[in-house]
């Protein structure tokens, strides 16, 4: 009898160990996403839309600086990293060492928005003037406020303006894009830099509230701009490619299967691109809109 029970227990353990793992399917899996905090509104909108179609899919998302998100992806600690740049040469080398093709998915066109206090007399600014502030040559009593010390917005501006010595700038690191808005609302002598998607969705209550609390500056790429040469990060100016501080939104992964692949394809396919458009950004893959008219008479 004891031998029979022992054999039965061994058989049950064998069946349990040999049972296949739950498949990672587009509508029934679990993944972790690391996203740059400046992209939080558009990322949350995409996750909400995906879960509306696939309610059993579990998508964990962590918001952090872009550099850390990419580092976690390189360490296989997350399935997807969402940011505003392509992989660096060192990061591409890691893909190559694992014999994985580097195929970043482009989801949207966003912009870095410049904001200031309602009491600040500045209404618009040129890139030349902005560079002078970074170099400590103008508005030296103003603070440049970013979401964190490793901000993708800051890294973007350093490259865009070709800043050689960032130590000359009077920079204040806040604790996220919402904290930047809070700081700007209370401090007239400051210019904040946030992800445009925080204020782009005019149908969203939070976005409208943020816009009411601060002033968005017009930006010009010209050194000596006229009154009509300044643009804000609106849907119209981004679509016309006239806003000088535009940037792309990328989705990176090393896993091209299951829920990971499905979510990325969703963001870049028709429904996900409609989510981007509804959020006030520009879909990277713009779907043409048209009307088919049937001229045949109804019988």
SSE order, as H and E? Answer: HEHEHEHEEHEHEHEHEEHEHHE
CATH hierarchy: architecture of the largest domain: 3-Layer(aba) Sandwich
Top-tier CATH class of the largest domain: Alpha Beta
**CATH homologous superfamily grouping of the largest domain:** Periplasmic binding protein-like II
Helices and strands: which structural class? alpha/beta
Number of helices: 11
Count of structural domains:
2
Q: Give the quaternary arrangement of the chains.
A: single chain
Fill in the CATH topology of the largest domain.
D-Maltodextrin-Binding Protein, domain 2
What number is the mean pLDDT?
90
Reported for the largest beta sheet, the result is: 10 strands, mixed
> Count of DSSP E strands?
12
| Sequence stretches where pLDDT stays below 50 over 5 or more residues | 11-20
Strand content: 15-25%
- Radius of gyration from the CA trace? 24 Å
Apparent shape:
globular
Helix proportion: 25-40%
Describe, in plain words, how this protein is organized in 3D.
With 299 residues, the protein is an alpha/beta fold. It folds into two domains: 30-108 and 248-283, D-Maltodextrin-Binding Protein, domain 2; 110-246, 3-Layer(aba) Sandwich (D-Maltodextrin-Binding Protein, domain 2), CATH 3.40.190.10. The chain is 37% helix and 20% strand. The protein has eleven helices and twelve strands. Strands 1, 2, 3, 4, 6, 7, 8, 9, 11 and 12 form a ten-stranded mixed β-sheet that branches. A two-stranded parallel sheet has the order 5-10. It starts with a helix and ends in a 16-residue tail after the last strand.
């Amino acid at each position: 009898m004891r031998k029979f029970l022992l054999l039965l227990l061994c058989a049950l353990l064998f069946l349990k160990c040999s049972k296949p793992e739950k498949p990672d399917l587009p509508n029934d899996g679990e993944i972790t996403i690391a996203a740059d905090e400046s992209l939080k509104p558009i990322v949350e909108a995409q996750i909400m839309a995906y879960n509306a179609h696939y309610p059993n899919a579990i998508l964990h998302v962590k918001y952090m600086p872009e550099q850390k998100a990419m580092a976690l992806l390189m360490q296989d600690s997350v399935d997807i990293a969402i940011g505003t740049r392509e992989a660096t040469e060192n990061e591409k080398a890691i893909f190559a060492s694992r014999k994985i093709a580097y195929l970043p998915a482009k989801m949207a066109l966003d912009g870095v928005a410049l904001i200031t206090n309602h009491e600040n007399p500045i209404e618009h600014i040129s890139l030349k003037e902005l560079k002078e502030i970074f170099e400590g040559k103008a508005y030296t009593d103003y603070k440049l406020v970013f979401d964190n010390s490793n901000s993708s917005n800051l890294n973007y501006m350093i490259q865009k303006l070709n800043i050689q010595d960032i130590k000359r700038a009077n920079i204040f690191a806040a604790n996220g894009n919402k904290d930047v808005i809070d700081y700007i609302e209370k401090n007239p002598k400051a210019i904040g830099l946030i992800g445009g998607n925080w204020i782009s969705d005019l149908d969203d209550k939070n976005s409208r509230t943020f816009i009411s609390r601060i002033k968005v500056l017009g930006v010009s790429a010209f050194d000596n701009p006229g009154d009509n040469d300044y643009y804000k990060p609106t849907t119209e100016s981004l679509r016309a490619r006239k806003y000088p501080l535009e940037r792309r939104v990328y989705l990176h992964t090393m896993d091209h299967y299951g829920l990971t692949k499905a979510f990325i394809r969703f963001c870049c396919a028709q429904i996900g691109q409609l989510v981007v458009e509804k959020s006030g950004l520009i879909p990277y893959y713009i779907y043409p809109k048209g009307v088919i008219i049937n001229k045949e008479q109804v019988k």
